[in-house]
């Protein structure tokens, strides 16, 4: 039986299909030891993120994932430009639903299937909702997705195409999360939240495992966009596991990127605060990272500090400029994903530093 522990007060719980936060409102983490990594075992699995299934908290030999997977993971890692041979882009838009969220959704929905749930609810700025909807369809689990009525119409169309019920809410991203949480509690169903459910991070951690295999080690720095921190925390946990197994000598520095118009984490970092206070989103084109009150802010700030990383904020005009610069190199990303590249352009890298930039979502997803 899996156990969960509150990140704030340390209270422990047995995992159930409907428990999603602590009585004190804190976020829950999995109680688990660092997995013992057996690299030789990876080749026993298909060439997808499920190569690393033995590092995930599923019972040994569990095969549930086989009926959930759509081949996600093992995305290309390629040199950004022949003139910058130490800078790589990881093309995570080459996923079944065209964003990195498939990493977390595939693993989280595998857990939902294992728990025997018949319905899930999630809230999203778009991409996580699309990924959860697709994998819910794959597992034959009913799914409601709560999102803003201003979400990119292409993302909404994609979610509906997978048969999910879309609940369009007028309000802030926080209002939308609150509406979903109210429905979860009222209907007593599984909250397939990429923020609250720690299984999502068991999926996004494979981002680190793949980079480790692709460059045969760890890069010096990771540029990571951050709203709720699902890629950031996943990458951190993945590299930490590799480090604790003695497979790499250091955890890469995390350079976390936010849009200036909605940057609670940058503010907290600059003020040396333990967790982020909510800000007002004054409007950003980067819809995927417009999170004014990230629930895991304490963990995100700790992760960046632990790696000697830093935070960078990006102006709106820098986002569009970065998007065209990337397109000129052949990479067509959605607007939110251009923030990462803008962050890279602002980051004062040291000579010879090896850097990985994620290309999180496909260009055709944007308005
Ligand atoms: C394209 C894109 N990039 C980055 C992110 C940021 O992810 P997170 O909010 O988990 O930090 C998102 C989240 O929706 C996204 O859609
Ligand atoms: Zn608690």
UniProtKB/TrEMBL annotation:
Cofactor(s) required for function per UniProt: pyridoxal 5'-phosphate
Domain of life of the organism encoding this protein: Bacteria
Transport keyword on record: no
EC number: 4.2.3.1
Residue stretches making up the Tryptophan synthase beta chain-like PALP domain: 68-361
Any one GO BP annotation for this protein: L-serine catabolic process
CDD domains linked: Thr-synth_1
InterPro entries noted in UniProt: Ser/Thr_Dehydratase, Ser/Thr_deHydtase_PyrdxlP-BS, TrpB-like_PALP, TrpB-like_PALP_sf
Keyword Lyase carried by entry: yes
GO molecular function terms noted in the UniProt entry: L-serine ammonia-lyase activity; pyridoxal phosphate binding; threonine deaminase activity; threonine synthase activity
Keywords for the protein's UniProt record, in alphabetical order: Lyase, Pyridoxal phosphate
Gene3D superfamilies for this protein: 3.40.50.1100
Enzyme class, spelled out: lyase
Transmembrane segments: none
Pfam families: PALP (PF00291)
PANTHER family: L-THREONINE DEHYDRATASE CATABOLIC TDCB, THREONINE DEHYDRATASE, MITOCHONDRIAL-RELATED
Protein name, UniProt field: Threonine synthase
Organism this protein belongs to: Bacillus safensis
Gene from which the chain derives: thrC_2
């Amino acid at each position: 039986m899996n156990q969960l522990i509150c990140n704030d007060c340390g209270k422990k719980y047995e995992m159930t299909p409907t428990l999603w936060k602590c009585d004190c409102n804190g976020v829950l983490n999995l109680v688990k030891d660092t997995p013992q990594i057996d690299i030789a075992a990876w080749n026993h699995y298909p060439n997808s993120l499920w190569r690393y299934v033995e590092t995930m908290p599923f019972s040994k030999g569990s095969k549930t994932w086989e009926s959930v997977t759509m081949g996600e993971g093992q995305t290309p890692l390629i040199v950004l430009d022949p003139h910058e041979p130490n800078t790589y882009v990881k093309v995570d838009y080459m996923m079944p639903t065209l964003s990195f969220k498939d990493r977390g959704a595939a693993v989280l929905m595998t857990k939902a299937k294992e728990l025997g749930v018949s319905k899930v609810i999630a809230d999203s700025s778009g991409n996580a909702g699309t990924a959860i909807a697709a994998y819910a369809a794959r597992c034959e689990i009913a799914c409601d997705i709560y999102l803003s009525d201003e979400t990119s119409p292409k993302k909404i169309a994609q979610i509906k195409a997978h048969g999910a019920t879309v609940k369009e809410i007028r309000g802030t991203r926080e209002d939308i999360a609150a509406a979903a949480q109210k429905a979860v509690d009222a209907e007593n169903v599984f909250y397939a939240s990429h923020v609250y459910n720690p299984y999502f991070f068991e999926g996004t951690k494979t981002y680190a495992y793949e980079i480790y295999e692709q460059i045969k080690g760890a890069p010096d720095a990771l540029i990571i966009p951050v709203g709720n921190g699902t890629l950031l925390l996943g990458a951190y946990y993945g590299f930490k596991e590799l480090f604790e197994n003695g497979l790499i000598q250091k955890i890469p520095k995390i350079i976390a990127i936010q849009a200036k118009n909605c940057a609670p984490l940058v503010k907290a970092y600059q003020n040396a605060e333990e967790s982020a206070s909510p800000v007002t989103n004054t409007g950003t084109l980067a819809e995927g990272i417009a999170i004014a009150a990230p629930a895991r802010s304490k963990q995100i700030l700790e992760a960046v500090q632990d790696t000697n990383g830093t935070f960078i904020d990006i102006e709106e005009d820098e986002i569009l400029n970065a998007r065209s610069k990337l397109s000129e190199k052949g990479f067509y990303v959605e607007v939110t994903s251009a923030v990462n590249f803008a962050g890279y352009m602002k980051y004062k890298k040291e000579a010879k530093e090896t850097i990985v930039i994620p290309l999180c979502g496909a260009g055709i997803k944007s308005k």
